[in-house]
Structures are given as structure tokens and as C-alpha cells.
């Protein structure tokens, strides 16, 4: 999928708050339940002994249930989670988004991009279709946005996806500040939110957005489903499995359901036979369209004997979801929507 870092399918300024925010997200009964679970169930671990993705341990060592939000300080220079340093002379006001994560973060911060190449803003939980229609679209699509068109908007910051837009650097870096991002987990997404908030001075908005997301995540992980879930994406009978580490939304699922799908690298994926062997209870489907409308992937597979034998298909638990949010959004607002929709079904 060109707009994702997934395996290929097979076949202005505000004053910063001082002091950390904290919220107790469960009552005594929930705390007791969590304590019992911690004592009786070992924390899942990866091959190297570190906590597995979605197991409840954040990169900074805190558990997912710890939703303390540290204060954000305004800054003219930040170094992001991938070691990229970004510096601006003043708070960026004219921002062009080449990746939907940028649109997600800007919406959380109360900023509208001067141009975008994403359809995420049209979602009703973002700007909505009417307001989104007022935001110019960068020609060239996600894969090949035109540098001249980008610069025509006089941006003081352009944000793109590292593995797709990094090649644009020679055309943009002398004319504007160019920042490429590459989120692999929700922790990365939160870090990018905090970094852009520091640069734009929208620290209070970012702290509130982070708190809202962490609260949602802690609530979902406090009552995980024992059902086996799966997210697949694709078009025209070609599909891939969304896995933690390569898909940010999928990285949420091991903490809220049974999600036995691990990344197989850039070229690896799963077959229908393997999916059938796992006895999937709930199937979330992201139908991707590459120019023009595509038939829902779940309809394309209809009639395939293997597909029809899946438990989720037989029991009517196949759910088409919005790929703009589930596959491309990757930010705290999109991930909050994913959590709400997923937990309502699981």
C-alpha cells in the first residue's frame, strides 16, 4: 500500500501548562481486577524479552494505564523519535501536509493546513466535508506530490512521510522547513504530536489531546476482549494483514483483544488458510482505492469457499472500516476513533 509502511499485499501560541496532568481512570473494583490480572497473567514478551507491542508497557517504561501527561514546553527546535532535528525561526502557521498524520495532529492542535493530499479532513470527526473542501489539494497524489505546487502555498513547514517523501528534500529544503515522519507505534504518534505542539506553541491543545487518547486507551485495555480480531487491507482480492510494528492502529489491538498477528517484514503476509486456522471472531476490513471507487473487499471475497468458512464471515462479524482513519490517520484523533469503533464491536 503506497500510503502506508505496510507489507505489500499478497496475490497561534499558547502558554504551556506547568505540572503534569494526571487522571485516575478506574475505581477500586477496576484496580483490583487489574492487580489480579497482573499477578495471574505474565506480561507477553517478544523474542528478546522486552514487552510485546500493545502489552501495556510504553517505550518510556510507563504502563498504558498510566495516563499522566507531562507538560510541553514551546521550542524553536525539536529532535523527534527518529533523531530528526527540526528548527523554525517562528511558530509555523502555514503548514502543508503530505501525510495524514500531519492533518490529524493539526486538527488536534486547532490548526488547518494550507494544503493537503489526504482525505482525512473530510471525516466528520475532523473538519467535515464542507470545511475540508476549502483546503487545497496538492496535485500529484500521495506518491508524487508536485514540489512547485507545494511551494506555491508559501509554507513555513511541510510534513511528509519519510519513506515516501524523503526524495523531495532537495526541492524543498532550501525554500521551507521540511520534516519527514515515520510512526511505527502509538507512542511515536504521541511524540510527534508533542513535537509539533512545541514548534507551534499549541501546547495546551496537545496535552488535552494526549490525555483524551491515553484515557481511551487505558479504558479499552482495562476491559480487553477475549475474541480473536484481525485487520486486513487491500483491493481486488489482494490483501495484507495489518500487524503491530508496521501498522500503528494494529499496534493497539494486542492490548484490547486476542491479536496473534506478527509482522513478517516488508514482503511477508498471511494466507486465507492461515487466517482460517486462527479462527478469527471479528474481522475489520480496510478497502483501499487506487483511483476510482473500489468494491468493498469483503464483497470481492464473497463466494470464495475459504472466505465463507471464516468464523467472522459465518457469524456476520465482518466490518468494513474507513481506511482514511484506520490505515492512514495514525494520530491520536484517528487512533481514538479506532479504539471507539473497535471496542464497540469487540
Automatic annotation (TrEMBL):
A GO cellular component term found in this entry reads:
outer membrane-bounded periplasmic space
Q: Which UniProt keywords apply?
A: Signal, Transport
- Give the UniProt subcellular location, in the record's own words: Cell envelope
* InterPro entries recorded: ABC_transptr_periplasmic_BD, Bact_iron-sidero_bind, TAT_signal
State the source organism's domain of life. Answer: Bacteria
Matching entries from PROSITE patterns are given as: FE_B12_PBP, TAT
Q: Name one GO biological process term.
A: iron coordination entity transport
* Statement: the UniProt record of this protein carries the keyword Transport: yes
Q: Which SUPFAM superfamilies match?
A: Helical backbone' metal receptor
Q: Which Gene3D superfamilies match?
A: Nitrogenase molybdenum iron protein domain
User: Which residues are the signal sequence here?
Assistant: 1-37
Q: Where is this region: Disordered?
A: 40-63
Task: Specify the Fe/B12 periplasmic-binding domain's residue ranges.
Answer: 94-346
UniProt cross-references to PANTHER family, sorted A to Z? IRON III DICITRATE-BINDING PERIPLASMIC PROTEIN, IRON(III) DICITRATE-BINDING PERIPLASMIC PROTEIN
For this entry, the protein name equals: ABC transporter substrate-binding protein
Q: Which organism is it from?
A: Streptomyces calidiresistens
Amino acid at each position: 500500500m503506497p500510503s502506508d509502511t505496510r507489507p505489500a499485499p499478497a496475490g497561534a501560541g499558547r502558554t504551556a501548562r506547568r505540572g503534569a496532568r494526571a487522571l485516575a481512570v478506574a475505581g477500586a473494583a477496576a484496580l483490583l481486577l487489574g492487580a489480579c490480572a497482573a499477578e495471574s497473567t505474565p506480561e507477553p514478551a517478544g523474542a528478546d524479552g522486552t514487552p510485546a507491542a500493545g502489552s501495556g508497557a510504553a517505550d518510556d517504561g510507563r504502563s498504558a494505564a498510566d495516563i499522566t501527561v507531562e507538560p510541553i514546553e514551546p521550542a524553536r527546535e525539536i529532535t523527534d523519535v527518529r533523531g530528526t532535528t527540526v528548527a523554525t525561526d517562528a511558530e509555523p502557521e502555514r503548514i502543508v501536509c503530505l501525510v495524514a498524520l500531519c492533518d490529524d495532529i493539526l486538527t488536534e492542535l486547532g490548526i488547518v493546513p494550507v494544503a493537503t493530499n489526504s482525505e482525512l479532513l473530510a471525516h466528520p470527526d475532523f473538519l467535515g466535508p464542507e470545511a475540508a473542501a476549502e483546503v487545497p489539494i496538492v496535485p500529484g497524489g500521495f506518491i508524487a506530490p508536485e514540489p512547485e505546487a507545494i511551494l506555491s502555498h508559501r509554507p513555513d513547514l511541510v510534513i511528509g512521510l519519510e519513506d515516501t517523501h524523503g526524495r523531495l528534500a532537495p526541492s524543498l529544503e532550501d525554500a521551507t522547513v521540511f520534516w519527514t515522519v515515520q510512526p511505527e507505534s502509538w507512542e511515536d504518534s504521541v511524540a510527534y504530536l508533542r513535537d509539533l505542539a512545541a514548534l507551534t506553541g499549541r501546547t495546551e491543545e496537545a496535552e488535552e489531546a494526549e490525555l483524551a487518547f491515553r484515557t481511551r486507551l487505558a479504558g479499552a485495555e482495562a476491559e480487553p476482549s477475549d475474541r480473536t480480531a484481525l485487520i486486513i487491507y487491500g483491493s481486488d482480492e489482494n490483501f495484507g494483514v495489518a500487524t503491530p510494528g508496521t501498522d500503528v492502529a494494529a499496534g493497539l489491538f494486542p492490548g484490547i483483544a486476542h491479536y496473534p498477528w506478527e509482522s513478517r517484514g516488508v514482503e511477508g503476509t498471511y494466507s486465507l488458510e492461515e487466517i482460517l486456522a486462527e479462527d478469527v471472531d471479528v474481522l475489520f476490513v480496510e478497502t483501499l482505492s487506487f483511483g476510482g471507487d473500489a468494491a468493498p473487499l469483503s464483497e470481492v471475497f464473497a463466494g470464495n469457499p475459504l472466505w465463507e468458512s471464516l468464523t467472522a464471515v459465518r457469524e456476520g462479524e465482518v466490518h468494513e472500516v474507513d481506511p482514511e482513519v484506520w490505515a492512514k490517520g495514525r494520530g491520536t484523533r484517528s487512533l481514538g476513533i479506532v479504539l471507539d469503533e473497535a471496542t464497540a464491536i469487540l
